[in-house]
Amino acid sequence: MALPAWLTSRKRSATARSVLAGEAAAEAARKQEQEMAAAEREGAGTAEAAGAEEAEFPVAGDVHAAAFFDLDNTVMQGAALFHFGRGLYKRKFFRKRELTRFAWQQAYFRLAGSENADHMQDARESALSIVKGHRVSELMAIGEEIYDEYMAGRIWPGTRALAQAHLDAGQKVWLVTAAPVETATIIARRLGLTGALGTVAESVGGVYTGRLVGEPLHGPAKAEAVRALAAAEGLDLDRCAAYSDSANDIPMLSLVGYPYAINPDSRLRTHAREMGWRLRDYRRGRKAAKVGIPAAAGVGALAGGAVAAAAVQRRRR
Fold first, then answer.
1. Residue 216: per-residue pLDDT
2. Are 194 and 65 in contact (CB under 8 A)?
3. How far apart are CA 32 and CA 182, in angstroms?
4. Which of 202, 216, 161, 191 is nearest to 45 (CA)?
5. Catalytic residues
6. How far apart are CA 181 and CA 158, in angstroms?
């Protein structure tokens, strides 16, 4: 079977596994969007009130523009994967020893204020081993509860307002995160966003195998996911915006015409200043710089992950 145009091979620096991870995430995001739209038509979907500060800028509608938001420390304080681990421990999915490791990783993340590749990899491996053999539907239901328990109160109001400004302008808004696509999809739906690009875990017959499709959606893989989704959605990346706190996301931020550094780590802050990118820091209750959408920018679900993985693999054969 011939690959669709938006999945055709291109010359790029990412590894094959990054490309596969990005394409799987994009496929999952599109299916999530379709499912969420159907649920809204049936009156089944409700978005939470933003509870955020009023956005400072108007954004004109543009069907070829969209916004991509990193999750951890950009939209939400801390790492979604660590919060998810706390919830699973509460439900006796693993022992205290594993909880101690999750707690240390979360403490490090909050104190450092940035991602560490070794810590994040260790956390992902822990999560995969914990969910192996469990049903996708079971983890999705638990994820809804964990969001209420550990995540809802950690959403940055300022970043939430930025996302809402894009939505109010008629633009689509996606989360882009290394967290599992199932967890990311729950957060996106609860915030009223369009959908999420996240790490796709393999499942067979609705049961997790403990393996990933490609690699975690991190660094270059995030850029590949955004590139693939933009091609599928007919977006002009030069008219899109992206938001992140981490220098690891410079590949994604560099793809779009309007990159924003939110709660930036030191490397991203330095890079953003050198490139003239806009900055905002919500951690200290201050604005690093006024953030606005330039006029040119505004003119002119885990089951989903499993289906996406299968679809991408079929297209590759």
1. 82
2. no
3. 10
4. 191
5. 70, 72
6. 24
pTM (predicted TM-score): 0.69
Query: What is the token pair recorded at 194?
Result: 């369009």
Q: Are 212 and 200 in contact (CB under 8 A)?
A: yes
Structural domain boundaries in the chain? 14-39+47-76+156-312
Task: Name the residue among 312, 211, 234, 252 with its Cα closest to residue 66.
Answer: 234
Superfamily of domain 14-39+47-76+156-312 in the CATH hierarchy: HAD superfamily/HAD-like (3.40.50.1000)
| Count of alpha carbons within 13 angstroms of residue 184, beta-carbon side | 31
Report the alpha-carbon distance of residue 176 to residue 263 in Å, rounded.
Answer: 16
179 three-state secondary structure:
strand
The predicted structure's pLDDT at residue 124:
60
Q: Which positions of the chain have pLDDT values less than 50?
A: 1-13, 41-58, 109-111, 113, 285-317
64 neighbors 239 (Cβ within 8 angstroms):
yes
C-alpha closest to that of 94 among 140, 51, 129: 129
- Give the phi and the psi of residue 294 in degrees, each rounded to 5: -55, 150
Distances (CA, A) of 291 to 50, 159, 170, 248: 19, 11, 19, 21
| Integer Cα distance of 232 and 315 in angstroms | 15
